[in-house]
Amino acid sequence: MQGISFFFLPCDLITETLSLMVTFNTFMSLHIAVEQPPTIITHTSGPIVALPFDNTITIRCEARGNPPPEYRWTKDGEDFVPPYVTTDHPGGTFELHNKGLQAFQGKYRCYASNELGTAMTEEIELRVPSMPKFPKEFNFPVVVKEGEPIVLECNPPEGMAPRQIYWMSSDLKHIEQDERVSMGIDGNLYFSNALQNDSRADYCCFAHFSKIRTIVQKTQMAVVVKSCRFTKNSLSQARPARRPSLLLPSGVQTEKVLLKGENLQLECIPQGYPTPTVKWMKMGDKLPLRTQLNNFGKLLFISSVDESDGGKYMCKGQNPAGEVVHYFDVIVEDPPKWETEPPQSQLTVIGTDVHIKCSVSGKPPPDITWRRNGDLFRDDLGSNNKQVFDDTLVFLNAGAQDSAVYQCEASNTHGSILANINVMVMNMAPRILTRDFQEYAVVRGKDVVMNCSVFSSPPPNISWVKDETLEIVKGERFSDFGGSLKIFSAEKSDSGKYLCVASNTEGNSSVAAILDVKDSTKIVHPPQDMRIISGTTAQLTCQAEVDKSLRDAFEVVWRKDGEEIPLSSEENPSDGMLQIMSVNLDDQGSYMCIARTILDEDNATALLTVLDVPDAPKNLEILELKSQRNVCLSWVPGSDHNSSVTEFIVEYEESQWEPGRWKELKKVAGNQATAEVALQGDLNYQFRVYAVNVVGPGPPSEPTERYKTPPAAPEKNPENIKIQGPLPHQLDISWEPLLPMEHNGPGLEYKVSYRKLGVEDVWKEHLVKRHSFVVRNTSTFIPFEIKIQSRNSHGWGPDPKVVTGYSGEDVPTAAPRDVAVEVINTTVLRVSWTPAPPATVRGHLGGYDVHWLRKRSWLEPNKILDDRKTLSFPGKRTLAIVPGLEPFSEYMLTVNVFNKKGNGPNSDPVTFNTPEGEQVPILTASNAQKDSVLLVWAPPRETNGILTGYLLQHHLGTYTHTHTHTHERAGLWGLEEGKPLPLPSPKPAPEPGCGPPLAQESRTPPTAGNLFTSANLFSCVISPFLRVSVFLSSLFSTSYFFSSPVPALLNISSYVSDTFAKISWIAETEQQDSELYVAYMNNREGNWLVSEAVNASRRFHVIDGLKPGTVYTVRLMAKRLVDNASIFEDVIQTRVKGAQRSNFLTHGWFIGTMCAVALLTLVALMACFVRRNQGGKYLHVCTADPDHPSLLVGCSDGEEKPLKGGSLLSLTGDEALGDSVSRDSMADYGNVGREFNEDGSFIGEYSGFTHRGSVSEPSGPQPVTA
């Protein structure tokens, strides 16, 4: 046997001499280079039934072995050469063609042989059934007397099972069967007793073979039933009773043998008159629970019988005349079967004993036949070492010549089984069949088995060593596993090279194995439970960590409720995200993420809950309550689909007025399933209900049947009654009619009742069907009481409410009287009047119009002007403030009243003059020397009067110097070095008096080393009470403020929110104890509100309780009077709640622009002051004032240019606090609305105009009357 290698896996030892036996399966796993006896691996199991439409029949036989086996066949025990052997089928498989197939019917056996032996198959039976058909025959009529039994024989032909039998007439109608007439298992038709109506000539038996799709018919038979009654001159005699007997089966006892697992059918068909009944019982026991009684109790059926179903059964047929019984002996048998498993192939050492045991069972007990290489085995052919003991074959002191394939075949009357046993007797050194340097991979913590498959005889000793240490591998985590090495809970340190060493008495061999322990796959971000709305997209994430070397084999698999979700590579990205588009209820369930490699896997589960709209409610019913117009609806809620129902909506539809249109009737809570509703009369209703949850409304329920309500009187009267007077002597009454559903019945109309308020007691009434009514020939603007009541054919509605209205208006007939004007200042006027008598207004008072005409300016008295303007003041009032006048002008003013119909006549005109306005010069200080400074100012832009000169003041300590000048330039001498100087204030002096002073602070240059830092320039004081100032950035150091009658405040600002505003300021040290007042007015309502006194040191005041999105006027005042001089005035608008505002201050473009502007300004200022320090471009030519030698007057230069800066600013850089009203024309007020406060002052909203001033207190207003 040199050069022959076999694969060996050790088995449990039976005895020491049998220690080399191996299983048949072990032999079959040998490498192709190892010689091995033939083994049948597949063959056709019989029986084979050839169908008529089968073109070919294939009988398979395939074996393996080395050398490859050769095949031969036998048929019915004789050698058989297949007629067609094709290369399409491996091994010994052959085909039989349909033509002439009948000749090949029989039992076949396949043999596969090579040098080491012969294997064989069980018998394969081929059945070729013929086409079933009934024989041609002539059937004589069956003639019986009434009451006698009848048996119509079918005798169906044999054929391919399954076979079904039918009894029918010639027109293919089934013969009716019952307790009297029934068909037996054999196909015959049995009549327990014949009746007259059984007579017919077309009883036909049909046999249906479904597998071959064939139905055959027997020649029809005739039955003639003769009557037994007497009909001649006598009454019909009663039919005599007849004792039962059995038509089937015959005799007294029947033996029934069947195999375990088959179905048991026992049949008893009795005959007799009256028709007998059948009863069943099992002798000595109860009928099995699986027992069924079919065919009207005549057939006992038990499925899949076993040994416990065997025994004696009895059927009993009985009627009033007697009874008959029959006994069945039921015997349940078994075909042969292996008690444990078929005998296994064996490998043993020369000189040992071999035992082959063929343990089988069956009923009756099987007979065992032994074969060697397919030939019947005989133990008396001169071989003393082979013996047969019952089911065991024994080889004593086996040698190499005993190697062969042995067959054990067990058979009884019900079949046979066969096993091929390969026996090899030999000695051989170990041969390791596992590939050398086999690589193994395992993840950390898992078990791994490194194979070492050895074939040897006798069996080898196998040991494992690690190549690095050459020490035998041992320990709790290492175990011998049939020669292979099993490592439990592998660790990273287990990686490396291992050697498997196998040795026996014949020699030794070894192979290497490489183990790589990898990191385990672990899900680090498992999917989370989700609740998602139907129709949206669900995303389940599953991120895992995996060993780098396994990334190419890594994949993420998703399963839903245990079934894998098929995903393409595009749908299954490496990040493990599962995206479910348009989620629906079918997507709800448990989702498992499986992150796996070829070595291991990890999984995590998440529950996806789909929220959807509720299902439609079911079983909607109507229940009447106290009346037919008060009903209760009840329903059964549908599924809420994981989101609780928040409410149910009850809808209705009526067929009379708006058929097909569903409207909401009532809402009920989601935990209720009933709703009580009140209905209108004379309507044909239909109802439905739908549920609502957080996802949305669900589908509606099925509508109810129509529900008709009885008619009734109206339950309400018309609403929204409107009373108008489009004509002076007419009263128009209109109202909102009742909806058609509110009629409650036919014949709806309205009763209109009216009377003069406080004059008439009797109501005038009119019935109308329309929803309007006109009362004519009324007095102008007379109050009336009106009421409207509805009614229909079934009665009146409820008592109506009384409303009041007026008849038509007409234009006013009288003008206001006693019109007087009071000139407040150069631009503002207060107008007062006595209202026109109410009777002359002849309508709802709309308000008053004030008209004024500027006739001339006193600067140009000969020029006639025609500048007309009007302001309207709504509501009842006697006073108004008129702004926007021009100074030093002559005006004429009239007033008229108006209502909705138009304006009344104008009052008598009033003529008045406005005084001269203030004249503001522009002052600058320059060329400051050690003890002198040059002052330059410009004439006022508008003289507003006749300019006569300038008044100049300056302060030295507590002493004030005053000078009068007619020029625009002056110089100051004899100043102290380095001292700050409040510069003089030149005042233009028109004829009536001086204009407001203008102040600038300066200082003489300091000694060397000091820096100039700042200076303040003060501008115009427009009245003795209100100052407007300008601050200029410069290189002066100290600022001194010009004293004023009101507190001097710095950095006045406002912050506005939606419901409050904050006014902030900074007060100088000497003004810390001053008291301030904050006034504000809603520009639409016109009412001023003034705060309590606020100490100036507090620095802010908060106005709360404001309305969002509203325009307000805010004033900061030194006195509590609203008309008094104000320090600060602003128009603000509160924000709208929730409105998003974009803060441009944070935008990059704005910040960059502001930085550039600041840089350019700094450069310009530096250049400006450099030039000033050099003397500028002015040539100073000064003359001394004869009254004050210390002053220089009449200074000029060759290119005199006043300093620009006519806009007036405050000390803190705020806008002018001067009388801006006096400088505005009416166009500055924009779109002036007709809104006034209670005292008549004008509070119109200005479009695009910010008003920051107030009217000053007049020093001596002079009233002017007509």
Give a concise summary.
This protein is mainly beta and 1266 residues long.
Q: Helical proportion?
A: under 10%
Profile the largest sheet: 6 strands, mixed
Give the C-alpha Rg: 63 Å
Mean pLDDT: 80
Structural class: mainly beta
**How many DSSP E strands?**
98
Principal-axes shape call:
elongated
Give the quaternary arrangement of the chains.
Answer: single chain
What is the first-to-last residue Cα distance? 154 Å
Question: Helical region count?
Answer: 3
Poorly predicted spans: 1-32, 230-236, 987-994, 999-1045, 1139-1144, 1174-1266
Beta-strand percent range: 35-45%
Membrane topology: Single-pass type I membrane protein
Subcellular location: Cell membrane
GO molecular function: cell-cell adhesion mediator activity
Protein name: Cell adhesion molecule L1-like b
Describe this protein's structure.
With 1266 residues, the chain is mainly beta. The chain has three helices and 98 strands. The strands form 28 sheets. Strands 2, 5, 6, 8, 9 and 10 form a six-stranded mixed beta sheet that branches. Strand 44 and strand 45 form a beta hairpin. The radius of gyration is 63 Å and the shape is elongated. 32% of the residues are buried. The model is unreliable at 1-32, 230-236, 987-994, 999-1045, 1139-1144 and 1174-1266 (pLDDT under 50).
